[in-house]
Amino acid sequence: MSPSAIFQIGLEKGINLMAVTDHNSYWNSITFGKIALRGNFPFFYGMEVQTEEEAHFLVYFDDLPRFKLFGEEVYNRLPEIDNDPEHFGDQVAVDEEDNVVFIERKLLLHSIRASVEDLFELGGSLGGLVIPAHVDADHFSILGQLGFIPRQIPFPALEVTPSFFRKDHSAMEFTGFPLVCFSDAHYLKEIGRSLTVFKMEEPTLEEFALALKGERGRGIIRIERGED
Fold first, then answer.
1. Residues 83-114: pLDDT tens digits?
2. Domains within the chain, CATH numbers bracketed
3. What contacts 168, CB < 8 A, 6 or more positions away?
4. Tens of pLDDT along 146-178?
């Protein structure tokens, strides 16, 4: 799952907008951005952030300085607990040629010191887009952890898993939210297993936000569901 390998698989599968969203970490997303820029490939910077409720959120940016500020803030809010490589494996950051630049000391699997509301405010204040991840999953989802989706927070969309469409759900849980479905890939073979097709003028975060709202002719065209 190196950035260069992800980029190559994306090209081979005909995907034309991607984001690398490592857990509470931003370095490899920046490296992916360098590779994508070199190949003239549309992308967003991104992270998957775990709040103190142990819920996961996708946070997207298309501005590198703001993304770095966000990533540094997330890192500073991680507890000072060292990773155990024998148990969790090495947490490596790589460059465009897959050379290891450094090995992260902090354990990235922890929750950061931020609530759902804090994260939404932080991401939005820096120009990012915050979307609850895999909301229908039993674990590490806002619905699984809280039992409800806070309606006072204006999330632009909810990400669901491929299996969402094979389950029965209460209509009230998701009413009023656009739904998107992405790869959530942890292995190369999973890249592109689910896709959301958008109508946008250009691959920018502003256009992405308009598509989620269904405004000015932009919108979600369809979800192509793969294996869970």
1. 998 898 899 999 999 999 999 999 999 999 99
2. 3-224 (3.20.20)
3. none
4. 989 998 999 999 999 988 877 766 556 788 899
